[in-house]
Amino acid sequence: MLSKKCKYAVHALVYMAKTPKEKFLIKDVSEACAIPKKFLEAILLDLKRAGVLGSKQGKGGGYFLRREPYEVNLAEIVRLFDGAIAHVPCATYKFYERCTECVDEETCSVRDAFLQVRNATVEMLKANTLEDLVKKETKLKARKKK
Amino acid sequence: MLSKKCKYAVHALVYMAKTPKEKFLIKDVSEACAIPKKFLEAILLDLKRAGVLGSKQGKGGGYFLRREPYEVNLAEIVRLFDGAIAHVPCATYKFYERCTECVDEETCSVRDAFLQVRNATVEMLKANTLEDLVKKETKLKARKKK
DNA sequence: GTAAAAGACTACTGATTTAGTAGGGATTGC
DNA sequence: GCAATCCCTACTAAATCAGTAGTCTTTTAC
After folding, report:
1. Is nucleic acid strand D under 7 Å from B42's C-beta?
2. Burial level of A137, CB count in 10 A (0-12/13-18/19+)?
3. Which residues does A28 contact at the CB level (< 8 Å), separation at least 6?
């Protein structure tokens, strides 16, 4: 399961990607997405440090997307907040750790199975950019009206 | 990430599926798989309650697989120990919970994306039975020797 | 140059989960 | 009856999560 932090981050980003605004106040995003303000503050800061968002301090400041919506995907966000995507540490690249459970990693079928799951999952998460999510929402809303 | 309990369970089951023995002592599985004995005890008990293993008490007793290796798959084991497979509670069936983050679940693109991931993951985990894992290990070992 | 608006940062907290450990109790075979 | 074996409850230390509180810094408007 994703942490709340991660889910909040995704929803905040989708909101920012779909709303035509130059700058977003923490307060506005917090209200629009129903995220505790102080908590969101920390989240947006993390996203800024990761280069996803930019910010401007002082009066008239706020946050803004630093990259185009098609350049930001779910895999990146999930990794940023919740770490590795794989189910086992020995089936990751960026967060690799040898597992104590398998005697020989090379011939461990459990690792092999979860490696397959991981690869497919990463592909799917990468295939979902903010742009995709915004478009999808528009489609789902149109379908509902019918 | 899977809990240790879940990983231990999978390794213990694979061990039992590949080893031609009628009954397994906790102690033996514990040593063969490098799992703390007392911890494994609780794990095997859970698997027994779930109908995966059977057991016999007293002298000469032990645990044994109650179903054929091809009838036990990873999805079931993961669900048993770690709960839902999906990344978000609103994208599960067995552990469903409405999420506070999305205003309208029907048109929530985040849910839609993770539902897609979940479905694919479940399929893959289901496709990996104990039998498959044992066979895979044999193959990997053969390939390594070459 | 000062006040107000905004983000940046540090530190704390209560609740929950994880990964075990301890210590008996119940059952069975001989 | 006694030793081997699984069954069960309770406890604990450490980590993580989800958030809150409070202060500091930067920027703009006047």
Report:
1. yes
2. buried
3. none
**pTM given for the model:** 0.94
Minimal Cα–Cα distance from B131 to chain A, Å? Answer: 11
Residues 35-94 of A with CB under 8 A from B: 35, 74, 78, 83-84, 86-89
Q: Do B102 and A144 touch (CB under 8 A)?
A: no
Which residues in A lie closer than 8 A to residue B124 (C-beta atoms)? 113, 116-117, 120
Query: B57 CA to D7 C1', in Å?
Result: 9
Instruction: Indicate yes or no: strand C within 7 A of the C-beta of B82.
Output: yes
Contact state of B140 with A33 under an 8 Å Cβ cutoff? no
Splitting chain A (146 residues) into consecutive groups of 10 residues, what average pLDDT does each group show?
97 97 97 96 98 97 98 98 96 80 83 96 98 96 84
The yes or no reply on domain B4-65 and CATH 1.10.10.10 is yes
Sorted by sequence, the CB contacts under 8 Å of residue A18 that are 6+ apart come out as A134, A137
How many CA atoms lie less than 13 Å away from A22 in the CB half-sphere?
3
pLDDT, tens only, B33-70: 999 999 999 999 999 999 999 999 999 999 999 999 99
For tokens 């401007």, name the residue: A56
